[in-house]
Automatic annotation (TrEMBL):
Key words of the record: Ribonucleoprotein, Ribosomal protein
Protein name (database record): (Perigord truffle) hypothetical protein
GO biological process: translation
Family recorded in the similarity comment: Belongs to the eukaryotic ribosomal protein eL28 family.
Gene Ontology molecular functions: structural constituent of ribosome
C-alpha cells in the first residue's frame, strides 16, 4: 500500500472485490464476513478491515499451539516493501493464557492500535 493512495479509495476498490469476502445466508438477509488476517471481528466493514487501515492487529493460532500477534507497520515507511510491512510476535504455548493476554494488550497499547478495545476488558461485565 502506497502512502499517496487514500484509504477511502482502497476501501471503495476492495469493498465488493476481495478474495477474503464470505457471504452467508439467503440473498435478501445476507451477512458478509471477511477472512482477512488482520480483522479481529471478521466483519467486512471499513472500520475492521486490516487491508485499509494504517494500523491493524491480528491474533492467529500458530503451529504447535503457539499464538501469533501480527501488527501492521507504518505504510509511509514500508509501503513499497510489502514483506516488511508486518511485525509478527510469537507467544509459546507454555505461557499461561493470562500472561499471553497481558503481553498482547501491552503491545497493542504501546503502539496505540485501537487501545480502547483491549485495555481493561477481560470479561463482558
Amino acid at each position: 500500500m502506497s502512502s499517496n493512495v487514500s484509504s477511502d479509495l482502497i476501501w471503495a476498490i476492495t469493498r465488493n472485490n476481495s478474495s477474503y469476502i464470505v457471504k452467508r445466508g439467503p440473498v435478501k438477509d445476507q451477512i458478509i464476513f471477511t477472512r482477512e488476517p488482520l480483522s479481529l471481528t471478521n466483519q467486512h466493514t471499513r472500520k475492521h478491515s486490516g487491508l485499509v487501515n494504517e494500523k491493524a492487529v491480528g491474533v492467529q493460532a500458530g503451529e504447535n499451539g503457539n499464538v501469533v500477534l501480527i501488527t501492521k507497520k507504518n505504510a509511509e515507511k514500508h509501503g513499497d516493501k510489502p514483506a516488511s510491512l508486518y511485525n509478527k510476535t510469537t507467544f509459546r504455548k507454555y505461557k499461561s493464557n493470562r500472561k499471553i493476554y497481558s503481553a498482547i494488550a501491552n503491545a497493542v497499547a504501546k503502539n496505540v492500535y485501537r487501545a480502547n478495545r483491549f485495555i481493561g476488558r477481560c470479561c463482558p461485565c
